[in-house]
Model the fold of this input.
Amino acid sequence: MLDEIDHVAIAVNDLDAAITFYRNTFGVEVEHREFIASDRVEEAMLKVGTSYIQLLFPTAPDSPIAKFLEKRGEGIHHVGYRVTDCKAALERAKAEGVAVLDEEPRHGSRGTTVAFIHPKGALGTLIELVQQ
Ligand code: CO
Done:
């Protein structure tokens, strides 16, 4: 049910410094920037082939990314898989008894539809299902 890797998300302490790191080190530029109010994060999407690196920066102390940075420091936060049908992929995971963070698909950035699967039932990896 997973078509491609949509993005690998990295939690960062300084968004501009992270963007500069990717630009200077790898020549990768930002394709899209968005403030996601519901998650209290700012994201920068850097295109790598047909996928993205998603740099995530918390915009509030109670942001899930702020909590992640506090506990674990900067690093990989989740993997986003591109799916044709987010609802169908989510329902299949639920039917398999996998714990989910979103019972129903919701709006993501870039006009996508997304749902998150809990890391505890997914090999310690937070998984995002992304439908364009
Ligand atoms: Co994501």
